Amino acid sequence: MNYKKVIVLSSLLLVVGCSSIDKKEDVKPEKTYSNSKIIEEVTIKNKEYLKLDLGKEIVPQPIVRDNEVVRKKEINGTKFIEVYDPLEPLNRRIYYFNYYLDKFVLIPAVNVYEFVAPTVVQKGVSNFFSNLQEINTFVNSLLQFEGRKATITLARFGINSTIGILGLFDVATKLELPKTYEDFGLTLAKYGVGNGPYLVLPGFGPSNLRDTTGKAVGMVTVSEVDPYNPVDVNVDDWGIRTANVINARKETKKFRYYGTGSPFEYE
Predict the structure, then answer these.
(1) What is the model's pLDDT at position 75?
(2) What stretches in the chain show pLDDT beneath 70?
(3) What is the pLDDT of residues 180-198, one digit of tens each?
(4) Sign of CA dihedral 137, 139, 142, 148
(5) Alpha-carbon distance values, 58 to 182, 206, 254 (Å)
């Protein structure tokens, strides 16, 4: 890893650390809506999912410290989580940009991919990128002193990268080696770093400063390790990166920007 990447990552970590200061006082003022109410409750420790009234389960929620309060807002029967969003004007514009990127580029690309590629090929591609994620899970398990998880993850990566042909086949799961997930954002959370400001990332969608840092560190880590270089497979190749983007959007295809039909879509 060159010095420029080290400096960039160090700067990001410094910003995230500063953002971990408790921001309960900075929560946006409550807005008045007809038929609406504000709910404030202490999040249950280790709670992983929040089910919305929309009948859909959203992505896992960030780890919350015991004393951290999460404000929930209910508008006309639909529940939302209030987050620290000082960049709301910019975030709304990026959300709007993502809508058009999704509509005219990503979703059409996913549709063509699903039409052209057989199911077995799609599964293999998904397994390939899932296997690359094992690198981040291994590194962050070590950083969290999770020795057993790190050992199993390393074994999974070794088996799937060899017997499973670069991860195209998930042999490790059939051998009853459980797959787990860790990234640098979760490592920061474990050591008490707060979410930081809410961010909507171009192309990637909703996130926050801590998890954005984790995503950036994860991408650099996989790039630097370059595990398949001995067999002349470059994970930074534009074709592999494009396939990664399409595969990632395929796996979250049920989500649609402005798909709720609600005037409070951004919330």
Answers:
(1) 58
(2) 1-81
(3) 999 999 999 999 999 999 9
(4) positive
(5) 18, 12, 10
Give dist(CA 235, CA 163) in Å, integer.
19
Q: How many H-runs (helices) and E-runs (strands) does the chain carry? A: 9, 5
Amino acid letter, 20: S
Q: 144 with 102: CB under 8 angstroms?
A: no
- The helix/strand/coil state of 61 is coil
Q: What is the pTM of this model?
A: 0.70
CA distance 265 to 267: 5
CA proximity to 244, closest of 255, 254, 236: 236
For the record, the structure tokens of 34 come out as: 């007809």
**Residues 6+ away with beta carbon under 8 Å from 3:** none
Nearest to 159 by CA among 148, 147, 173: 173
The per-residue pLDDT for range 59-109, each reduced to its tens digit, is: 444 444 433 444 666 656 666 667 889 999 999 999 999 999 999 999 999
Angle separating helix axes 238-251 and 119-143, nearest 10 degrees:
90
What pLDDT sits at residue 261?
Answer: 73
Instruction: List the alpha helices (DSSP H) in the chain.
Output: 3-19, 88-101, 107-116, 119-143, 147-162, 171-174, 184-190, 209-225, 238-251
Alpha-carbon gap, residue 167 to 162, rounded angstroms: 8
Distance CA 79, CA 52 (A): 6
